[in-house]
């Protein structure tokens, strides 16, 4: 008897809850921006009385979920290639939400700061420079006393947008890398050991003297990992910060925002940076979705590129969109339709 | 309908569900690996290339098969003496004593520890030890993984062994002692021949467990997609590469990973079959 009373009470509570929250929006995808998304969605839920659920299942999973039409939006660290766009059942649009960077961390006791040029960085990850005592490193860093120690390269073992960004950069700046390895979420690494996730790579670096590896900025900034200065396209050695990451988006970008920001020509830009995107169908009337559902989805994403949400990005160690890109995102959102009719005014 | 009939139906349907699930698994694994099978054919088994780069995609399972077999066999080689001695200790020498029950319980406890904890322990304790010993510059690799695997599978290798050793009839042992046999001779001539099949079975069980272990190995093997060239070199295993790359894989890569899973399934089935055969043969 008691049990059934509790049950009835619970059930009525649940239905009450449903009536209060107007719309429930679901998305899935990239793990890289997850801390930002969690903070932003929580804040949005409080302000707009909507329920947002997000599953950090990886960019590939996010694209698959949108393809299967089981979510309202997907999230991906890599924009969809032309081939992937063709494979989607209907046209989709990309909305950039913030940018992040990949930092190069190392473990050299007694060495405070090192500088790396694109060529030297690529040579290390290609296994051409195998010792910290290499002349190229010494020439680049006068005053730094490098130990005579073998370099241990640490890379990600799992597929990740971080790897995609890092290898995309190396592909752009180094011909040998371009022909021998290439870019992707997982690549065929010439040297090094693989570790799972940012914490795995960071842990392996911490533990191994003479190691060097790359870590996503969202993790590196939060953990205050020391990182190397990288020479950008303008020839300046740039430290990875929220500001220098954001600066990478200040150059020219294509209308659909599908661009890798790596090796940006902006003079203050950190060169290994990139956007992360939310992806939605260009026409929201699919799978018997209601207009209200489509509108709620669009409002949420529109809010994500607003100033309030972008402030949350900075708080969670991501770089905000430059004003021009945020405006572009808003313009793209206003091309999204429901049965041919525009949704956002 | 009487309760006996109901019970019979419930039992029938539950067993049927299990069989159906297993069949569905094999079917979906097979279906998922079709693109990879049709693209690579037998080459998948003998190629040691694993290149997911767009444009030059090429997948082969050999390096993972070698990595898996190498770590598991090595783990078994390390685990068998440990397990063998522990079994004799618990089930024969100190049988029935408090000490034996403490040791037995502790060994069983090892089986209950989540593999992430083995992985972390290996990462923070074992790797630095391997580095300090000067065996490898970073401590990751086949040897470290095999060592952790060995510790993880000892409980599996002892559990059944203990039971079978304890089940050797006392009359036989006493008869041997009466003939003047020493303890070592009793073990050699009475206990081993009688308990052999059960012990072999438990080692095969342990081997199967080592082959499928994922998390701890992923943390320790170094995840380098190349055939290991030595005990202290890095490598990769089938379970580990699936766990690593599945989340972000699509297209042909996804299919190749599913084919790896199918292979793992087949290999495990073969090992189990061999185990059953051995038990039948000598049991």
Automatic annotation (TrEMBL), chain A:
InterPro entries (UniProt xref): ABC_phos-bd_PstS, PBP_domain, Phosphate-bind_PstS
Gene3D superfamilies attached to this UniProt entry: Periplasmic binding protein-like II
The UniProt record lists the keyword Hydrolase: no
Domain of life of the native organism: Bacteria
Keywords per UniProt: Phosphate transport, Signal, Transport
Signal peptide (UniProt feature, chain positions): 1-22
Domain annotation PBP: ranges: 23-307
Subunit text: The complex is composed of two ATP-binding proteins (PstB), two transmembrane proteins (PstC and PstA) and a solute-binding protein (PstS).
NCBIfam families: 3a0107s03 (TIGR00975)
Role summary: Part of the ABC transporter complex PstSACB involved in phosphate import.
Family: Belongs to the PstS family.
PANTHER family listed in its UniProt record: PHOSPHATE-BINDING PROTEIN PSTS (PTHR42996:SF1)
Name this protein carries in UniProt: Phosphate-binding protein
Organism of this sequence: Prevotella herbatica
């Amino acid at each position: 008897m008691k049990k059934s009373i509790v049950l009835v009470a619970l059930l009525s509570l649940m239905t009450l809850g449903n009536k209060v929250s107007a719309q429930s929006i679901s998305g899935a995808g990239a793990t890289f921006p997850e801390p930002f998304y969690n903070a932003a969605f929580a804040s949005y839920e409080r302000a707009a009385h909507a329920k947002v659920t997000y599953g950090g299942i990886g960019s590939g999973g996010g694209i698959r979920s949108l393809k299967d039409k089981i979510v309202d939006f997907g999230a991906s660290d890599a924009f969809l290639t032309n081939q992937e766009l063709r494979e989607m059942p209907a046209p989709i649009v990309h909305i950039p939400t913030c940018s992040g960077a990949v930092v190069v961390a190392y473990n050299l006791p007694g060495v405070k700061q090192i500088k790396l040029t694109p060529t030297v960085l690529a040579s290390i990850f290609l296994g051409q420079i195998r010792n910290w005592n290499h002349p190229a490193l010494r020439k680049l860093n006068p005053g730094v006393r490098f130990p005579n120690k073998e370099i241990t390269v640490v890379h990600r073992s799992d597929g990740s947008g971080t790897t995609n960004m890092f290898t995309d950069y190396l592909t752009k700046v180094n011909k040998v890398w371009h022909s021998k390895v290439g870019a992707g979420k997982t690549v065929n690494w010439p040297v090094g050991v693989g570790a799972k996730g940012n914490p795995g790579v960071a842990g392996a670096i911490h533990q191994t003297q003479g190691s060097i590896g790359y870590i996503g900025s969202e993790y590196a900034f939060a953990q205050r990992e020391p990182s190397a200065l990288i020479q950008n396209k303008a020839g300046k050695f740039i430290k990875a910060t929220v500001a220098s990451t954001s600066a990478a988006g200040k150059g020219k970008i294509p209308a659909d925002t599908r661009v890798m920001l790596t090796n940006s020509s902006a003079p203050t830009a950190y060169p290994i940076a990139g956007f992360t995107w939310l992806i939605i169908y260009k026409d929201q009337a699919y799978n018997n979705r209601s207009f209200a559902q489509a509108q709620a989805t669009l409002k949420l994403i529109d809010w994500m590129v607003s100033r309030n949400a972008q402030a949350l990005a900075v708080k969670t160690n991501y770089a905000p969109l430059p004003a021009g890109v945020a405006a572009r995102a808003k313009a793209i959102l206003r091309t999204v339709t429901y049965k041919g009719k525009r949704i956002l005014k | 309908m009487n309760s006996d009939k109901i019970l019979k139906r419930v039992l029938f349907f539950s067993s049927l569900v299990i069989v159906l699930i297993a069949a569905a698994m094999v079917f979906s694994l097979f279906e998922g690996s079709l693109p990879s099978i049709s693209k690579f054919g037998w080459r998948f088994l003998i190629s040691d290339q694993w290149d997911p780069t767009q444009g030059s995609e090429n997948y082969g399972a050999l390096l993972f098969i070698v990595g898996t077999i190498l770590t598991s066999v090595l783990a078994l080689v390390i685990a068998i003496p440990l397990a063998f001695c522990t079994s004799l200790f618990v089930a024969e020498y100190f049988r029935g004593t408090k000490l034996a029950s403490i040791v037995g319980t502790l060994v069983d406890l090892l089986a209950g520890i989540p593999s992430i904890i083995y992985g972390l322990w290996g990462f923070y304790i074992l790797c630095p030890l391997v580095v300090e010993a000067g065996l490898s510059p970073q401590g990751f690799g086949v040897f470290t993984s095999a060592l952790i695997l060995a510790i993880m599978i000892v409980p599996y290798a002892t559990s059944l062994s203990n039971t079978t050793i304890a089940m050797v009839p006392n009359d036989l042992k006493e008869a041997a002692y009466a003939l003047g046999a020493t303890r070592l001779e009793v073990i050699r001539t009475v206990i081993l021949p009688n308990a052999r099949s059960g012990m072999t079975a438990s080692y095969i069980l342990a081997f199967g467990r080592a082959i499928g272990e994922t998390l701890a190995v992923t943390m320790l093997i170094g995840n380098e997609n190349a055939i290991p060239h030595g005990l202290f070199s890095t490598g990769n295993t089938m379970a580990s590469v699936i766990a690593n790359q599945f989340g972000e894989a699509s297209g042909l890569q996804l299919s190749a990973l599913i084919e790896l899973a199918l292979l793992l399934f087949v290999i495990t089935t073969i090992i189990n079959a061999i185990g059953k055969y051995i038990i039948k043969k000598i049991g």
